[in-house]
Amino acid sequence: MKQLKIGVFATSLLLSLNASAHMLWLAPAENNQTLAYYGEFSAGELENQTGTLKTFNISKAQHGDKKYSAKVQTDHLI
Predict the structure, then answer these.
(1) For 22-31, how does the pLDDT look when each residue is reduced to its tens digit (9 = 90+)?
(2) 71: CB partners within 8 A, 6+ apart
């Protein structure tokens, strides 16, 4: 029984070390625009509007007195 508990613990530890997290990153674009991407940057995997990217659709930015809303695209925000 003790070996079974150690095996379950070791397996759980290995699986948890393999977890990765999404990140939000910005990239410059034409016309002085900035694109916002969300996903696994190192793997080149982007979330899209059918996934968790849609949670950022209400994003707002402010620069001085100007306020900006995100323009929603399929796999990024402008």
Answers:
(1) 888 888 988 8
(2) 77, 78
Structure confidence by residue, pLDDT tens digits, 24-59: 888 898 888 888 888 887 777 888 888 888 888 888
Q: How far is CA 18 from CA 9, 11, 63, in A?
A: 15, 11, 39
- In angstroms, how far is CA 10 from the centroid of its own chain? 29
Q: How far apart are CA 50 and CA 67, in angstroms?
A: 27
Tell me the pTM.
0.62
Give the DSSP letter of residue 16: H
- Could you tell me the two tokens for 47? 């979330």
The H or E element containing residue 9 is: helix 2-17
